[in-house]
Specification:
The complex is a heterodimer of chains A (about 140) and B (about 325).
Chain A (H helix, E strand, L loop, with lengths): L2 H15 L23 E3 L9 H5 L5 E6 L13 E8 L8 H5 L5 E3 L14 E3 L7 H4 L5
Antiparallel strand pairs in A: 1-4, 2-3, 3-5
Chain B lengths: L4 H36 L15 H11 L10 H17 L11 H10 L1 H11 L3 H32 L4 H7 L9 H17 L11 H4 L9 H26 L10 H20 L7 H28 L1
Classes of the chains: A alpha+beta (about 140), B mainly alpha (about 325).
Chain lengths: ~140, ~325
């Protein structure tokens, strides 16, 4: 008779009732991402030496860096180059993390943002020099 | 027989109150079942609508009310339309003698709850769908089979009390609940198993076995008609639990608290027990179900009845 097994099963489920649920209340509670999680490409502008290695290694050519050399003549500036623009096309990005690996100064890195759906294609073209570029992404709001 | 206007008004008010109670009770039970099942599976269940999702059922009812009334082509229209009413009306009829001491109370309740199978079978036949028909057929076979041990268990309680009136059965349990008597404890077990089968709940939910029959007899139903099947099902569960509380657990008698509160505590306690069983045990096969009813439960109920008779006559 499976009666004893049935009673055992009933105790298992009874015990489960008092176990804290494992569900994450998603929009209000969020899972902390793993150390090695590769989210969106982000930039520490002050560390960047504009070596262009990230752009070269990117398999999908989603990074676009241009440099202007006007700063060289400015007095007091120890920088040899200055940013023209640094664009990141998320539409093309395959989140491989090669740019992060190749960067000699850890200037370019992949952050922990994982809610990367947007309402327009233009929003996938990101200016990495804009400090507030991911404000909307980190706290997504439903329209 | 003439009825005065006042009596008529009182009857209408009591009727509306009973209907309100049935609807609210069914909505509460659906929410409660979702919560119990969720916590058994270490989930939260509904959490968004109201405090801990308490208004989820209200939202669901509004959704079902607003849904389009679909009649599939090929259905037997008259039967298909009438089936949800036949499923729900008998459960509501059970509440008809509220406030009266019906001297055949137990018999009346059993007669009414037995009629629910008609609605289920009509739904299965009228849907013109093989899965629905299989569900309806299974339901008919199951309910007829399990009614025998169910009634035998009830007869044991009736024998102990010496009456069919529910109020007198409760009065008979003033000193000690029937369940504390060995032969009544067996009867309670038989009643609970047969009752679970009567209301088509897991482990005896083969009429609507999702993995075999899509949704069984209510596959083709949607919107309000589907809601009526649900209402009937949960009301039946309440009735079976209330009956178990009355016949074996002393009904509404208890210290300190109001009788109604005692009655609801006992009834919903048994309902929770049925939910606990549902979310623990797997579904049985059709042959196991029928074999268990005829080869185990019915003989056990008969033996128990004989033992109870011997104890009473000793």
């Amino acid at each position: 008779m499976g009666l004893i097994e049935m009673i055992k099963a009933l105790f298992v489920t009874l015990k489960n009732i008092f176990v804290k649920p494992v569900t994450l209340q998603y929009p209000t509670q969020k899972m902390p991402m793993a150390e090695k999680f590769r989210g969106l490409v982000d930039l520490r502008t002050e560390k960047c030496i504009k070596c262009n290695q990230c752009v070269k290694i990117c398999p999908t050519s989603c990074l676009d860096l241009s440099v202007c050399s006007q700063a060289r003549s400015q007095e007091g500036s120890d920088k040899k180059k200055d940013f023209g623009h640094f664009k990141y096309n998320m539409e093309l990005c395959c989140f491989c993390g090669l740019c992060e690996q190749v960067c000699p100064t850890q200037a370019i890195y992949m952050n922990k943002i994982y809610e990367i759906a947007v309402y327009g294609r233009d929003k996938l073209h990101i200016d990495l020099l804009d400090t507030g570029k991911y404000d909307e992404w980190a706290h997504p709001t439903v329209k | 027989m003439t009825i005065s206007i006042l009596t008529f008004i009182i009857m209408v008010i009591v009727g509306v109150m009973a209907l309100g109670f049935i609807a609210v009770s069914a909505m509460f039970l659906i929410w409660w079942e979702r919560k119990v099942s969720a916590h058994i599976q270490t989930r939260y269940g509904p959490m968004r609508v109201g405090w801990h999702g308490v208004l989820q059922s209200v939202a669901d009812v509004i959704k079902l009310l607003l849904k389009e009334n679909i009649t599939p082509t090929g259905v037997d229209k008259a039967v298909w339309w009438a089936a949800p009413f036949f499923a729900v009306v008998p459960s509501v009829m059970v509440f008809a003698p509220i406030g009266h001491d019906l001297n055949i109370g137990v018999l009346y309740i059993m007669a009414m709850t037995s009629l629910c199978v008609l609605g289920i079978f009509m739904a299965g036949w009228g849907s013109n769908n093989k899965y629905s028909l299989l569900g309806g057929m299974r339901s008919a076979a199951q309910i007829i089979s399990y009614e025998i041990p169910l009634i035998l268990a009830m007869v044991t309680a009736v024998m102990f009390a010496g009456t069919l009136s529910i109020q007198k059965i409760v009065e008979a349990q003033k000193d000690a609940w029937f369940i504390f008597h060995p032969s009544m404890a067996v009867a309670f077990l038989v009643f609970l198993i047969a009752g679970t089968a009567e209301v088509n709940r897991t482990p005896f939910d083969i009429p609507e076995a999702e993995s075999e029959l899509v949704a069984g007899f209510h596959t083709e139903y949607s919107g309000m008609k589907f809601a009526m099947f649900f209402l009937g099902e949960y009301t039946n569960m309440f009735i079976i639990s209330a009956l178990a509380a009355v016949l074996f657990l002393g009904g509404w008698s208890g210290p300190f608290l109001h009788p109604i509160i005692w009655f609801l505590i006992k009834t919903y306690g048994i309902v929770t027990l049925m939910m606990w069983i549902r979310w623990t045990l797997p579904r049985v096969r059709v042959d196991q179900l029928m074999g268990f009813a005829w080869k185990v439960l019915t003989p056990l109920a008969f033996v128990n009845l004989a033992v109870a008779g011997w104890v009473l006559l000793r």
